[in-house]
Amino acid sequence: MNHFEVRSGELHCEDVPLTRIADAVGTPVYVYSQATLERHFNVFREALHAHAALGEPLIAYAVKANSNVSVLRVLAALGAGADTVSEGEIRRALAAGIPADRIVFSGVGKRRAEIEFALTAGVCEINVESEPELELIAAIAEQLTLQAPVVFRVNPDVEAGGHAKIATGKAENKFGVSFSEARRLYAAAAAHPHLSPLGVACHIGSQITDLAPFEAAFRKMRGLVEDLRADGLAVERLDLGGGLGVPYFNAPEPPTPADYAAMVARVVEGLDVRLAFEPGRMIAANAGALIARVIHRHERPEGRKFLVLDAAMNDLIRPAMYESFHDIRPVLATNAPPEPMDVVGPVCETGDTFAQGRSLPALDSGALVAFMSAGAYGAAMASEYNSRPLVPEVLVSGDKFAVIRRRPTYEEMLADETPAGWL
Ligand SMILES: *Cc1c(COP(=O)(O)O)cnc(C)c1O
Q1: What is the rounded end-to-end Cα distance, in angstroms, of the chain?
Q2: Domain boundaries of the chain, sorted by first residue
Q3: Is the minimum distance from the CB of 40 to ligand 1 under 6 angstroms?
Q4: Domain 34-282, CATH 3.20.20.10 — does that match?
Q5: How far is CA 109 from the centre of its chain?
Q6: Tens digits of pLDDT across the chain (423 residues)
Q7: Number of Cβ atoms within 10 Å of the Cβ of 114
Q8: Tag placement on the chain: N or C end, fewer CB within 10 Å?
């Protein structure tokens, strides 16, 4: 459920007509519904709270899905933690008021300066992905004379649907250590004066629409916790990652948070660990839309019809990168009959195609359309490709809206470039 709906023939975000935002801020523009962000977080939390076996888990929102500080503030106010993958994301989470002891630092290639920053800030865990990384963390912790809280990210070697580019849980993927490495490294960390091994973690991929791969992975993780304890090691945390899919328009229906929570409760029954979850997409995706204007509509002599928008792949890369489907809706109701059209942006490559043969009303130049389910991996992945200024973002709450990241000016876009001295 989200708070984008048609009222009197016009698509609204909560109580604000999208036309009003497009007129005030220009297009393309991302629009987020605060009530929807809150709803998704609360639905997930309540699903977990329904099971005593799950205790009081940490819900560390995966910042990379949508890293706008206002979005993080909305979630921080509900008690969310943050799953971060760079110093920049840690800084964003802190700027949003998420306490360091609710920030998880993940990622397959953390740099020395980032680890120093994370340890000094006091993050609650660094999810370690390899032996060299563990050695680096140990050396830094020793230098800083502190104890590094480490959790081992294990690659559970399960096949988890989704798109190949976002599957992370097979042994051939770059992520995490194997079960046997985890046992060896955990024991080494426990013996090290500057490392505090706290637990284990997994994250098997994104946009997963079936509970079976989660369950398979989580059962293996439970087995690992038991093996580590049998080795005489203390394990207090189990981080189960993110990855729960969302209902995109034409995609398989994902499991509900309630079904997901019930499955987790069955798997961890009696294990006595503090759980952590790292949902990203399921919180943000359906809380956001990208609004674009039609530049023109044209038809090739051989009959193919194109709707050319002022949004492009640099603003929303998911269709080009992952073959993703986004529902595209006219912002104002129209009686124009639907026809199959290719919806494209102005960027000079054929990859800049949002949809092919999509049935849409024959909209005229200037009409507004909304790409639905664009709140996750939308603005966060935007770029200035083709020297198009970075797309702005707007947050709506009830009948209010605020620009939470403005569109840079062309002067700003050029300001960081210094021509080489010899030119
Ligand atoms: C990307 C990522 C997530 C979030 O995945 P979603 O599919 O957005 O829920 C969680 N944890 C880690 C380690 C990630 O890399």
Answers
A1: 56
A2: 4-32+285-415, 34-282
A3: no
A4: yes
A5: 18
A6: 689 999 999 999 999 999 999 999 999 999 999 999 999 999 999 999 999 999 999 999 999 999 999 999 999 999 999 999 999 999 999 999 999 999 999 999 999 999 999 999 999 999 999 999 999 999 999 999 999 999 999 999 898 766 777 777 777 777 889 999 999 999 999 999 999 999 999 999 999 999 999 999 999 999 999 999 999 999 999 999 999 999 887 778 899 999 999 999 999 999 999 999 999 999 999 999 999 999 999 998 888 999 999 999 999 999 999 999 999 999 999 998 999 999 999 998 888 999 999 999 999 999 999 999 999 999 999 999 999 999 999 999 999 999 999 999 999 999 999 999 999
A7: 20
A8: C
Residues tagged active-site = 348
The CA 282 to ligand 1 mean position distance, Å, reads 10
**Which contacts (CB < 8 Å, 24+ apart) does range 251-259 have?**
251/207, 251/209, 251/325, 252/209, 252/210, 253/209, 254/208, 254/209, 254/282, 255/209, 255/210, 255/211, 256/47, 257/43, 257/44, 257/47, 257/48, 257/282, 258/47, 258/50, 259/211
Cβ–ligand 1 contact at 81 (below 6 Å): no
CATH superfamily for domain 4-32+285-415: Lyase, Ornithine Decarboxylase; Chain A, domain 1 (2.40.37.10)
